[in-house]
# Entry
Amino acid sequence: MKTNIHNELDKKIADTVAILRQAASEFAPVVFANSLGAEDMVLTDLIAKYQPDIQMFSLDTGRLPKETYDLIQEVSQQYNIPLHVYFPDSTRVQQLVTEHGINGFYDSVENRKACCFARKVEPLRRALKGKGAWVTGMRRDQAVTRGALDVSAFDNDNGLQKFNPLLEWSNKDVWAYIRQYDVPYNKLHDQFYPSLGCAPCTRSISPGEDIRAGRWWWESPESKECGLHASNTSLKASRERIIEIAANVKQEVTA
Ligand code: SF4
# Structure
């Protein structure tokens, strides 16, 4: 007999698959921006199992930790959906380094955002070009900047619909899924790195600290976004439609 925890997880899985199905049926072509964090490994597994027509990509900023490159390799070998990797424009990065220095992002929020723009935002825009919607692994309780997000909303900055199917998942749900389905994950998570990004801008945290305390730790919490998720407004997806699809997929997920 299943415990309440497992029943709750099954329900969240069914809801998430329903959201992915709604995205794929109403907004194709849809892409999943795989940051290779724990949440995104849950989505990788769900998309590969239930909605493989959603394309998957990651951004290689050129400053990622070795463990993230190891995971890219593992994902490419283990899953039957291709992981497309986008790189920054080399001319833009060269200009940035010439102006600010190789580690100039430590000097000011402005310099840090310029680096994130060159290495993340501009490649993201290329990856999203021509797509109807994109999917992310953002969760509501990850950061103060994510409290007001919706499961689905029009992304004004990038001009397409954006889905956050794990919005209501807790950190515990994410790890329960990873353990239950033996999903590969970034080994830095075992060394107190709950939130991962570029190597020079991410550090481990202490017990009790906020889970994003290790990201850009020298800045205030309000500025801790890289520009990939700048704004999320208007045109919410129909919650009723998601509930309807979830009811249809629940049996399939729990079978
Ligand atoms: S996280 Fe740091 S190294 Fe990575 S793009 Fe942003 S500022 Fe640059």
Summary: The helical segments are 4-27, 38-50, 66-78, 90-100, 109-128, 171-180, 239-254. The pocket of iron/sulfur cluster is lined by residues 61, 63, 105, 112, 115-116, 119-120, 197-198, 200-201, 226 (CB under 6 Å). The chain has one domain: 4-254. Residues 232-238 have pLDDT under 50 and may be disordered.
